[in-house]
Each structure stands twice: as structure tokens, then as C-alpha cells.
Amino acid sequence: MERTFQVDLRGIVDLLSHHLYSSPRVYVRELLQNAVDAVTATGAESADIEIGTDGARLTISDPGIGLTEAQVHELLATIGRSSKRDELGFARHEFLGQFGIGLLSAFLVADEVRVLTRCGDAPTVEWLGRSDGTYQVRVVAESRPEPGTTVTLAARAGSEQWFEAPTVLELARLYGSMLPFTVRVNGEPVSGAGLPWAAEEPAMRRADLVGYAQDVLGFTPFDAIELKVPGSGLTGVAYVLPFPANLADKAGHRVYLKRMLLSEAVKDLLPAWGFFARCVIDAGELRPTASREALYQDGQLEETREALGDQLRGWLVGLAQRDPDRLGEFLNIHHLGVKALALHDDEMLRLVEQWWPVETNVGRMTLADFRGRYGLVRYTATADEFRQLAGVAAAQDIALVNGGYVYDAQLIERLPALEPGLRVERLDPTDLATRFESVEPGVELSLRAFLGAAQRSMDKLGCEVVLRTFEPATLPALYLLDRSAAFAAELRNTRDKADELWAGVLAAFDKPADQRPQLVLNHRNPLVRRIAGLGDSELVGLSVESLYGQALLLGYHPIRPADAALLNRSFLGLLNQAVPTAEETP
To answer: Can you tell me the distance from the alpha carbon of 55 to that of 120, in angstroms, rounded to the nearest whole number?
Structure first.
């Protein structure tokens, strides 16, 4: 047996009016929006919409098309109906409203809503709706003098603040300042500001755009980019922020639909990389969500987002061509956004390569200058690697780029996409050892006992001792760890801390590294030569352990518990050797 759903009208009204909208303040927007729709339906190019409030009661009157008694029953009393626009034969995009539930927002602040409406020569009809889901409809004897609609709300107990004249004035100005119709609150005009990008003269338009940002958004923009997407009926402006944007905070944009404010914080209007801009736009073809506080995610919005991204990209390219110094100022503020775009866009990658200076061990310069001077772009992938290797690499005449900043390593790896044959290479620390000079065979043979004692002190740490000659001579030792060995060490360290189950899983990935870490002793350094001349193997061991600890610290390598214990032991051991005991003191 088929049955129909039982609907609790009071519950539906409560659900939609209290949970669809984020704040009671939207009731002014919804009432104003319905009035604008009613006027739009008449085809009038100008009209007066009057809002009156005394702190306890609010009315809004429009000279719109009005409703007949039948339309009142069908449209005002049927939740979810598509609104009057289709019933009256008008195209959907002519109206601001997209859902027939806007009037429910009135129940956020009132328990009773009275609508007095007249359509053409038809009688004036009164609809009286209550928050409990009941309503009454009647034809009134005293007709409205002109077609149109008046909506009256009486403040619910506890909601009087939303009916105070300053509050209503502020909200009406917020939502309706750009409307093409005259809107007044208690006789005071709140509309007529117009679109700030609509001035005919470029100089005046520029002044209007900057003034709007200062007055409404609270900052003087770095630049203002005029926007236009005909397919969405969109015009507007993107304001480039004069300060770095917070990457964790998604940009909120000020969006108007047919010159009625939708929201001051619409997300996802621009591509993710466009976080350096805040937009103010008016659109005619984008769809709002049911609450009319955000944009509906559909193909139209996606195409609009791509078009706006293209216009931001075009502004950046144009800035590089006409004002490089200004581009440099912009990149100092917003380089992260541009580099994020360059990860996927060759045009932006070329812009970054040409204009953004990177850190190298031969001074700051652009990637274009670096590769023009050295050909091969050799880089480190982390800032720690750069700190470890920059000085030693420079001493070996190896130019090195620090790719440890956000996106830099990925951008360097993408450079061959700009120019086939362009070479980039990540420097492995152990590659440096191949640039060092070997010690003469006779000298190395004479130091065999020293090297044996040094290796024994390092065996417990899994480190290989190598004797070489390199610059700078002031550096006694260098700790080199290739990437495969570093990964293996990190894996073993994680496995040792994991529980039995995960230790077993990680053990499956534990493969012997191709190379052990190397402690490269610099025979050109006077201290190393003095240690090599010591005849005491215990003292040699303590000295080499100390050099190992210093190499870790100078190279910004992580200090493991075993390393910390070795540093402590070698320090105390050398101190014990240097300070005589009481028996030895004269």
C-alpha cells in the first residue's frame, strides 16, 4: 500500500530559516532581492524600493509585478517552488533569486510575515504566514493604489536589534549599494554607488578602483587588474595585495550577482595559485547556492575560474615586459604564488627564471644568469645540503644553487622544458670527494698507522675515514653522506623506534646502502697534519672523534644519540689528556 510523506511544516520552516542561512542579517538581502526580482519582471529600467523601520516593525515596498490570488497560493505557500519568474514567463537568468525559499529568511527574525500584493488590475491579496507553518490568504477590500508588493515583519522577541534603523540601513547599503534601482531606508538612499570599474575615463576609473579598495577592503592595492568574462556576464577587478598573503587561508572574494551582493567571502573564484589577489566582481550567469551565500560549483564556474586565471597570468607577463622593476617589487611580495603557477605553466616558469633571484654559493642571481654563466645548473634539494656543501663546493670551483626554498628544486628540475638540452643536476655530497686531490702515495703510506687508528675509532659509527687534500685549508674535516645512505640511516632509525609490527614492515625496505658515510680528513689542514704525527693511538682516536663531531655541527647534520655520546666522550677524553692529574702536578 502506497503512502505519502507526512511533512511537519513548522519543522521545515524552522530547518530552512534557521539552518540554511549563516546569519539573521541575510533577511534584509532576501527581502530586497525579492523586491528587485518583482521590479525586473515589469521590465522597468528605474524604480523606487522603500524600506521603513521603527525598531519593532519593518516594511519593504516595491512597484513590481505583484501576484494574483492563485499565484499567492501556489508560490508563497509551496516551499521549494522555483519562484514566480518561470510562472510569469521570464527567462531564468533575468532574476537574482534562484530558489523559491528566500521569504523563509524572514522567520529568522519574525514569527509572522504579512505580504500585501496586487498584480495589474487584479484585486489586492493579503498573505499572512506564521513560523508554525500555517498561513492565511484573503482578498482585501482596500486595494493598493498601484501594482506591487509590500512585505511587513513584526520583530520577534529578542530580535529587535535587527530592526533598528542603523542596522537596517547598514545591511541595505551592504547588499544593495550597487543596484540599478533606487533603494531608500527611512527615506535615506542606500543605492546608486554603481560599479567602481564602470567609469568611462581611464584615469577616473583608476581613481574609483583604488578608492573602492581603500574604503571597502581596507588597503591600497599594489595594482588593480580589470576583469571581464563575457560568457559569465562577469566584470570586475582583481586587487593585487600589497602584502604577502597567508597561504593557509583561502582568499575570500566580494561577489555580486546582477549588482546584488552575494557574499564578501566567496571561495574558489580564482585558481589556487591566485591567492595574491582579492576580487570584486559582478556576474550575471553564475549560479548561487540555495542560501545565496556562495557560488554553485559547476562547469560555468570552472570555465570562469580558468578565464580569470588567464587574465592574472596575462597581467604578470605584461608587467615583465613594460616594467621589470615593478615586477621585481611584486615578486618580493608574492613570489610563492608565482612559483606555484610556474610549476605547471611554462610561461610563468620563464618569468621566474628571468626575474626571480635565487641563492647560490657565488651570490644571488637569477636562474637565467646562472645558467648563462655556468651552463650546467647544479643544485641542492634542501637548505641543509646547501649549508653543508656551499663553501666547499665554491672552493672546488663548483657553482651551486640552493634549491631548498619552497618550489625552487621543482622549478629547477622543470627548466629543461623551456630549452631542450639544458642540463640540471642535483649535487650528491659524495660527488665532491671526486673533486678532491689524493695524497701522494708515499705520504699516505707513511700515515698508515694513523689512518688505521682513525678508522678503528669510526668503525663503531659505520663511517669510512678518507684522507684527501682540498680547499679551504682551514676546514679540517668534512662529513659526506650520499642520499641512499642517508635514506637507509633514516629508515633504520625509524625502524628502531617503531613497534614490532611496523619494524617488520620497514625491515623489508632496509637494503644495504651503496656507500658508507665518509669522514674526509683534509691533509692540507695544519691541525690534521699534527694529529697524524701523534704516536699515541688513543689520542689519535679521541682527536678524530672530535673532528667527526665538528664536521657534523659545521655541516648542519642531525646529531643522533650515538653521536652525542661520542662528542661527550671525545671532549672529556681530550680534556683528561690536556689537564695533568694531582700526582703529575709539581
So the answer is: 32
